[in-house]
Amino acid sequence: MARALIHMPATAQRGDIIEIRALIGHPMETGYRVGADGKLLARDIIRSFVCRYNGEQVFGAELHQAISANPYIAFFTTATESGTLECIWQGDNGFAHTEKATITVSAA
């Protein structure tokens, strides 16, 4: 099971631009490295990241072998209403992980 962290403000005013930072612990093995036994290590990478704000996608990224281990992603969105941000990582070998965070939005 992966360990993921989401850092974002717990509260904001409607219309504020907020930063969301997401980090997940994952080795991101490219499939090009040779192990101690001289054989190629199997590829094991996160292929996609999506963030949904109250069910609507606000950010998405396709990841490839060049991404480092424990990928860190930061992006901005506009606080429109109170609710939940859901971050979803999917990868090779059936890997899938979801983390949720809530935000309370007040009238400007």
Automatic annotation (TrEMBL):
Pfam families, per the entry: SoxZ
Tree of life domain: Bacteria
InterPro entries: Ig-like_fold (IPR013783), Ig_E-set (IPR014756), SoxZ (IPR030995), SoxZ_dom (IPR014880)
Every Sulphur oxidation protein SoxZ domain range: 9-101
Protein's recorded name: Thiosulfate oxidation carrier complex protein SoxZ
Higher taxonomy: Bacteria, Pseudomonadati, Pseudomonadota, Betaproteobacteria, Burkholderiales
